[in-house]
Amino acid sequence: MAEGLSRRRIAGTPQTDNEETSNGTSTPAPSLTQNAPDINNKKSDKPPLLTLMEETLLLGLKDQEGYLSFWNDSLSYVLRGCMLMELAFRRRIRIAKDAFTGMTSIGDRPVEVISTRPTGEVLLDEALRTIKGSETMRGVSSWMDLLSGETWNIAKAGYQLKQVRERLAKGLVDKGVLRTEKRNFLFFDMATHPVQDPRAKDEVIVRLLDTLNLPRSAAQPTRAATRNPGTASPASYGNPHYSVGQGIGGQAGKLKMAAVANSRFYKNEEEAKFALLRRVCLVAAACAGSVLENPLTHMDMETRDRAVSRAEELMDVYGRWPFKKESAVYSPDIDSGEAGDLMVLEVVTAVISVMRKMDKLI
């Protein structure tokens, strides 16, 4: 209901050493280095203004019409996977360890809650309570099934998170990214959410293009350059020729991090601990959720095919555990090697591995 959709963000809340865990023990903050002065160089765990769910929704949303494709059945399933990745990034869940962990696929390994501290995001907190309240420990693939309602077991219908797309859209309205309008669809009226502030979607698209190794000048070429600060020069907007390999990774295709200039929604992104991995997750969610081609429609067919191939390659590299480090697109910056980060990487890998098999699941 609309009355229950107000969102309160807990910004900059530091993690405490006595944070609640699933087994009642405290989780100490990981030590970064042996030298005290290097503590100042610690990357931040503070999440960006937009969640992975909101980013994926924006990519699928029609700017002026304000609604998603009616034929996209996979997006709802993918959004639940994004929730699990967000909970992992915020260190609320992890893959449980037991004697049989190594004998099962990464997507089927049980997930456990390690902290019930509120995230400040209503949907994330609701998903966290649902996982915590379950009497049975389940894997990522099972939770994506249950939270999306993709199950034939009526007894498990209570696990489903309902009206996720609408609630995410209203959350973006609260953040000033979208606005609410009413649109008539022949026999009924429906609330739509056109883009109010295009900077948010522009920044998401630029980060997507960076990861796909496409030039930033390919970001929304029909918009005025003044509405895309830091994404492209005015001269580049008349150039229709784009190619995978012309991005920040160059012809080698290496996965690299470059912050968006004058960013409003991703301030100091290069200082965030999992910034590059978040971009990989965005590409994986967009590809699995069938919204990847939306920002690529103005490109030629060959470029789009190569972009999709790179997205699938990224999912293949980061959707298996351990990562496929021999691949040309693997970046050592993904894994910081810090204590405690392993539990984040495992959950993210598990979700991406399930997204790789979407055609078989849905």
TrEMBL record:
It comes from the Eukaryota. One of its GO terms (biological process) is Golgi to plasma membrane protein transport. GO terms for cellular component: cytosol; Golgi cisterna; Golgi membrane; trans-Golgi network. Pfam families: GPP34. The keyword Heme does not apply. Keywords: Golgi apparatus, Lipid-binding, Membrane. Residues 13-38, 219-236 have a biased composition (Polar residues). Its main location: Golgi. It is a peripheral membrane protein. It is found in: Golgi apparatus membrane. One of its GO terms (molecular function) is phosphatidylinositol-4-phosphate binding. InterPro entries: GPP34-like (IPR008628), GPP34-like_sf (IPR038261). Residues 1-47, 218-238 are annotated as: Disordered. The keyword Membrane applies. Belongs to the GOLPH3/VPS74 family. This is GPP34-domain-containing protein.
